[in-house]
Amino acid sequence: MKNFTQITILFLFILGNVYAQQEKGIIGSNNWLYNWTEFKPNQKQYDEPTQILAGNIDKDTKLVKRETYMLLGSVFVTNNAILTIEPGTVIIGDFASKASLTITKGAKIIADGLETDPIIFTSNRGIKRSGDWGGLIILGDAPTNKFGNGSVASFYGDLAQSAYGNTNYGGEKTESNSGILRYVRIEFAGKRIKNDDYYNGLLLACVGSKTILENIMVSFSAGNSFEVIGGDVNLKKLVSYRSNSNDFKFNYGAQCVIDNSLAIRSPYVSSSTAARCLQIASYNKKEEVDFTKKGTKVNANNLTFLNDSESLKSDIEKGLVKEAVYVGQNAKLDMNKSVISGFNPAVLLENTININQQNLEKIKFANMYFNNCRGNIFVENDSNNEDLENWYGNSAFFNVYSKSNNAETFIDFSNEKRPDFRLRINKIIASKDAVYAKEELGIND
């Protein structure tokens, strides 16, 4: 009887730890990446375009699956029109004309795909590459902390004066509704605008909280995969795959909840600038914003950020691997139950942030799983992170540190057709010790 009791207690202890670990990173009783995602989009072939979309769409319009559509140049949905897209519809962005699709203030997009029949935005080139076409832009009338709201007019090159009104965003309607994006893939977007400026895969500017944004995959974007400027949005089950720039970027007073989402970086396709999985800022220049308005605030839960390096040590030494998360001054981040695996370091705070209790209470990391990172949390340009390690390493935060490779960390990391990036619980060797020795990675300063 005594042995049975001991075995039962041991079983319950192990079971409790398994479920506790399963709560970290992307979660689900099943792999929610199945069916609708595509990790080799350059190998997919689509029908030739049968319809052209150009200029303004100023009345309610429906795109149907039986047709294949070509975006030609800058296409605007205007005049409070609703653009509805059937599940399974393919929209191809034209390379030569820097095609893009913009949903203007007051208009809506209803792109409600299915798990087995997603809506696809992709490139028209035979050999597809990052930045082949512009991307998808949704402009809303929710608040921003910018003076005078904002405009994306600079994206479009030679834009007629009469069209400038179509590029404005911002207002006071926090709960505004710009439609639905669900089970949607955006591939090879992020066309270069000029110098180091690019379109994004999906840009959400002042989009309101009643907009539905979930199960969206952006792959091989030359610009940011997902960028949120202002607004009040809830994001769920997003995937950013092999972006040249940031995977998720939030700025100018964005109020956001992002849940159960994934970013997979490759050091071999990232831009030379410091591209991150998650970048949070309240402004680019202080003189642009009104400090009486809300700064950027992001609640991030169950995210998985992983770096796909063939040799992490070598790639770090070559300067190819950067931090996963960057937090700017006057921005707030509350990050929970998330996985950061294979970065240098895991988190970087802007050097203007004073390390004190008031500021650290605005930047929270709890129930985290830091794996195989060269250092955990640092201030920019400061190699001494003892205060930060003491703060975030406190047992009250329940942060865990490990040194497993990707194949050991995730359920089916190497499966090209149906990868599974949930944690592989039984292979993880973890510790609650915040002191993570660099020698464990075989890296010397």
Structural write-up:
There is one protein chain. Helix content is 9%, strand content 35%. The protein has 445 residues and is mainly beta. The chain has one domain. The N and C termini lie far apart (55 Å).
How are the secondary structure elements laid out?
Elements: H1 2-22, E1 51-57, E2 61-63, E3 68-77, E4 82-85, E5 90-93, E6 100-103, E7 108-112, E8 119-123, E9 136-139, E10 150-151, E11 168-169, E12 179-187, E13 192-194, E14 197-198, E15 202-205, E16 212-219, E17 226-229, E18 232-241, E19 248-251, E20 255-265, E21 278-280, E22 297-307, H2 312-317, E23 325-327, E24 332-336, E25 339-341, E26 347-349, H3 357-360, E27 363-366, E28 369-371, E29 377-379, H4 386-392, E30 400-402, H5 406-409, E31 410-412, E32 420-423, E33 430-431
Parallel strand pairs: 1-3, 2-4, 3-5, 3-6, 4-7, 5-8, 6-9, 7-12, 8-12, 9-15, 12-16, 15-17, 16-18, 17-19, 18-20, 19-21, 20-22, 21-23, 22-24, 22-25, 23-26, 24-27, 25-28, 26-29, 28-30
Antiparallel strand pairs: 10-11, 13-14, 30-33, 31-32
